[in-house]
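Need tokens for this chain, all 223 residues.
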Amino acid sequence: MKGIIFDFNGTMFFDEKFQNMSWRNFLEKKTNRFITDDEFQEYIHGRNVDTTLSYFLNQTFSRNEIIKLEEEKEFIYRSMCLESPDFKLADGLPEFLDELTKRKIPITIATASGYTNVKFFFEYLHLDNWFIIDNVVFNDGTLNGKPEPDLYLKAAKNIGADINKCIIFEDSKSGIESARRANAYKIIGVASMQSPKALLESGVAATINDYKNTEKLLEIIEC
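Here are the structure tokens for all 223 residues:
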């Protein structure tokens, strides 16, 4: 059975500015130094929070400490989202999801976000119109994060699909590598943070800037 798995941040919701501002706010207070753009790509975007915290704060944390620090940062992030008119799904995505649902194609989400944020997105972006929250794979501390394949392998299993027949939509370097290691059938790069050229160099089969052209998207995924 063919399935489609979406990363969330930067793929379904173009939230780079929210992520950058909230992480800078949080980390620069903790480290008293500037966070570079290269560090964002390598250690923040698509990564589990424990990897991010260990790198920037230069120590290992218990699961309870990670949860506390993550919530401190995510409170800043969620507040920024709620205050902005740009807190919405990517252009054309609701219509594309409607079409996938109409065609009865199994879909889910695999994200490095924690469950509190997943619930937040479901509530305010009405993801339950298309997705079953119990099928969503998130960072609960039990799975290796991207670029390891674990999140995508579990996501495919959750929707009863063979990962070798799954199409994955991703935006980050670590997420693309995760999908590649999982042996996904096809990876579609979403150019929200990286250029189409950079995405293609990472090994994606095709790139999109948004989801406005449903007909073209259906051709890409061969449905």
